[in-house]
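User: Predict the complex.
Assistant: Input components as received:
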Amino acid sequence: MTENIRSFPGTPLSEQDFEEGKILFNYDELNGKFSWDTGIAIGSYLAGLKNGVILGSRCSTCRKTVVPPRTVCEWCFRPMQEYVPLHDTGTVNTFSLCYVTWDMKRLTDPQIPAVIEIDGASPLHGIMHLLKEVDPQKVHIGMRVKAVWKSAEERTGAITDIQYFKPVKEV
Amino acid sequence: MNERVAIVGIGWSGYRSKSADLSYKELIYESAVKAYADAGVDPRKDIQSFVTVAEDFHEGTSIFDEYTPDQLGAALKPVHTITGDGLHGLATAYMLVKTGQFDIVAVEGHSKASNILTLPEVTAYAQDPILNRPLRFNTHFVAGLEMNRFLFETGTTQEQCAAVVQKNRRNALNNPKAPYGADLTLEDILSGPVLSWPLGKRDSAEHSDGAIVMVLASESTARHLNDKPIWILGMGWCNDSPSLESREWGELPYIQKAAQIAYRQAGFRNPQGIIDFAEIDDTYSYKELQSLEALGFCLPGEAGILTEDGATEVDGELPVNASGGSLGMGHMIDATGLARALEVVLQLRGEAGLYQLEDVNVGLAQSWRGIPTTSGAVAVLAN
Amino acid sequence: MTMRKVAVIGAGMTKFVRRAQETPKELSWLATRMALESCELTLDDIEAVCMGTAPDSFDGIHMKGEYLSDGAGAWRKPYMRSYVGGGTGVFVPIQGWYHVASGMFDVVLVVAEEKMSNFYPHAQAAFLTIFDHTTERPLGPNLLWIFALEMNRYMTTYGISKEDIARVSVQHKRNAANHPCALLGDPDITVEDVLNSEVLAYPVQRYDVSPVSDGAVAIVLAAEHVAKRLTDKPVWVEGVGWNLDTAHWTNRDLVYPRYVEYAARMAYDMAGIKEPKKEIHIAEPYDPFDYKALHHLEGLQLAERGQAPQLYIDGTAARDGNMPVCPSGGLLGVGNPIAAAGLMKIAELFWQLRGEAGDRQVPGQPRRGIAQAWGDLMQVGTVVIMGR
């Protein structure tokens, strides 16, 4: 590399260094607690979910129906004031078969996250959720799916009010 | 390039202890709409770059810049985040215009402090994780250490610090935006609970939620946009040592240097007689005094006396925090510096209403990033 | 109006390792010192410092930029940390560029540092909090998901095979075998090795992914009049671009990175480049996953949509090809200490364009290179074009 550089600094450690107690460290668990205000748009979305409805919003200028609903259209910057109930069915836009958890623990049966284009929203407009009740090998892009809801009593106004999506018989 | 840079649009929302009716995105949208209308610009067509300020731990979201573009009208545009105070954001937007590549740039800062349920703990996570954090002190202890040393070195008294609180919270009574206006006696302030002696709870600003957006433009563009451009004469920012073990406690070398940088650009050395008023850091009462000295408005030890004498009152020689400052308006975490700059702009435009100062042409805004940092910024603005 | 020219005049970096003994401050300082020594400057010559580092949650340190400031040499200096997620490593030199191009400063130090091993038990978990707190986080998402979702969409739309994608990983890891700082250089790795590696999140397998790492990189930027005084071989920042797409990532097609295209067009305009395929001699696209390099080459207009795999099949992307891609070894080979990995690409272009890249030197005296990074929720593109 440059004539001045003879060697590069940095000292790699191995697992053994820790096992043998050569390395001292300080362990701390963070206590960051938050209660995020959901506001108008996402607040309405969550209220919709509690009632078993996926809510979108419509921009009359861009003629787009988006999900989840929002206060402002990101493309024309005009307020979005029209809320639209969408269907709880949709099409898999893309998916993955995930064999590790969010903190990298190994799974035998994969989790199946997917982006699902929601019926009633504009094309390519979807939400991220999970697929279940399906053979992982049979999931495909373009697959038709339907939401499986918690019972009305169990719903709290959260994205998890939809337990997951499952395939619908293609006609 | 030598073209000057102006603030041509301002918008704000919030200044409330809670804002449960709006999400942070909606607060920001409200401010952005106002700022763009004020500047007469369409963000989708006219604004070429956007700067936001935020810290992940204040948002409870990692990589928070993900969520910045939509409510600013900035989707698919050059947007970036500075993990700094609002004045760092302002300085960044200023530099972008100065490159000559951008004519109109927007800057945004916000606070949803009310959503952080464990704010003292979160603030403590800014301490060195090996050397300081395991001691588990009340997070305000850093301010207690600094205040004690400042009082010791300068002979400033707790009463003089309390006079800052009294002034700023009284000023806030005239500011309809300010949620913490109050008419307190010095005794009320001094008899409050102790946080970390000599620092009392009433020396410390409460928090508020809100959002601020500003639009900056190059000189040639500014002249087309509106008839009330506020010129940025100089911007400076600086850090001192982050270590609690090896920093100056009594003085603020980072504010001294930030001010020197800003003053040099503005073309003067000494602010006295040039700057008509200031909106400066008062996260804690003593910081206003310490900052006044670091900014060169007076010598060490004089700021407390001047405050007691009324020199920093709205009708004094150098009105300081006529808006009420953070003590009166609430500390807005990362947006605090923008809040101060906004007040300077309002004064220079003659739009400050009940607390409008007379005959002001040059104003100064200054900020500090809060404990345990040694990071601050200074802006000199003129009409 | 003419813009102030800005040059890179020095660079330094630490080894990229799985777990470093040095603290984040020390890593920053090691890279900083090397960058200063490489252009025979001291901290006294530095007028301002720009810092790049990715989420605070890795280190569990709030306001990590403030914590790192003395390690990055920012004591009593103007100092700011910029942040665009994974795109930060190529953004922070842009931040340095506007510090100088604005006329505010003549000599600026740019530092990027990451210590991912601080997070316990695994840095991956820190990524949970990048998702929307209300609409996504309750589903327990992990970072691999978004890559897997995007990769699947890209493969399926264009009919690209896993084998086509594995070639990227192989070439980058082989290139990295010549990089003295590399964590995962392997001269003998094959496509089969990649295809047979553990499935993490179909279609993503172990060897499709760059390794979590610790490391730091620093460069020195100078205004034209200073650069010419200090070095015979300044490398000019000819163009910069950055772009952030909407946060609503489930409301757009992941098959093509529009934001990278917009960032690239901004940089090409600034550099006066009309035909990128002809005028760019070395490309360092962001490659945290192998398919990402392909995705980004398309966004950078260096390949047609869906055609980037061809560059690896016909040898164009090889170190001795017409347009070498990631001659450094990229993130897949050298390692991925997030922000530092992006700035490593800038350092690589600096060394390559000066003809100082040693065993990795691209033949034919390349004149111009492009580096790019990506980040957030498949959302941000950052681009720097450098030339001599």
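The mean pLDDT of chain B is 96.
Let me know if you want any component modeled separately.
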